[in-house]
Amino acid sequence: MILVDNSYIGQKLRRTRRTAKIKRNDAARMLHIPARKLLKYECGKELIPESVLERMFYSAWTMMAIRNAPYREPTRHNQ
Predict the structure, then answer these.
(1) Is 74 among the domain residues?
(2) Structural domain count of the chain
(3) Which of 20, 57, 74 is nearest to 49 (CA)?
(4) Which of 20, 41, 45, 58 places its Cα 20 to 30 Å from the Cα of 68?
């Protein structure tokens, strides 16, 4: 078991959000939580529930996959 302080996780969450240039309201919408709740998580005042962490994890993987996907020109199929 690894124990981590709420404020440490919150700081990482805030820095990551700012680096990705995502506004708090947009991030809250992506995580399906109110912006005020996200603020509490970022300040370390509340523990982030497992369901929200799971959404963060999958959102991050999706964003990384989209960023790293090579752009391909649409092809026209002859019919």
Answers:
(1) no
(2) 1
(3) 57
(4) 41
